[in-house]
Design goal:
Elements (H helix, E strand, L loop, with lengths): L2 H7 L2 H5 L6 E4 L5 E4 L7 E4 L2 H22 L22 H14 L3 H12 L1
Antiparallel strand pairs: 1-2, 2-3
Helix pairs in contact: 4-5
Length: about 120
């Protein structure tokens, strides 16, 4: 989908109301660096957590307003992206064989077996 066309369909308020994950990093010399990974280059600093949070909020709003006015792409928060649940993955033939044999021994499909392994790992 063309993002510029999508911008015309969504209001600035829509983008300003999106909730993005924020990461805080304490500075060894005091204060905090804060960034929004989903918005390239959107970062700020603050002497306290409260100040850092206020500063990143202002930086987020300015970033979104500027991008919107210029017709640039505004990335959605990772939490807003819809995932289909389908994943296409190429693996070595030997691993495929090994997983298929283990799934057969367990009496489950290969997909179910891999899902169990991934669930345990995460």
């Amino acid at each position: 989908m063309n993002q510029k066309i999508e911008l015309k369909n969504k209001s600035l308020e829509y983008y300003l109301n999106l909730r993005y994950a924020v990461s805080f990093y304490p500075d060894p010399e005091g204060g905090y660096t804060v960034l929004i990974k989903d918005i390239p280059g959107c970062m700020s600093v603050g002497e306290t957590l409260l100040e850092a949070m206020e500063n990143i909020e202002e930086a987020r709003e300015l970033w979104i307003e500027t991008a919107y006015e210029c017709g640039h792409e505004i990335p959605l928060p990772t939490t807003e992206i819809e995932y289909s649940g389908n994943l296409s993955l190429q693996i070595p033939k030997s691993l495929h064989l090994s997983l298929a044999e283990k799934a057969e021994r367990e009496g489950v499909s290969l997909d179910q077996y891999i899902l169990v392994l991934l669930s345990k790992a995460s």
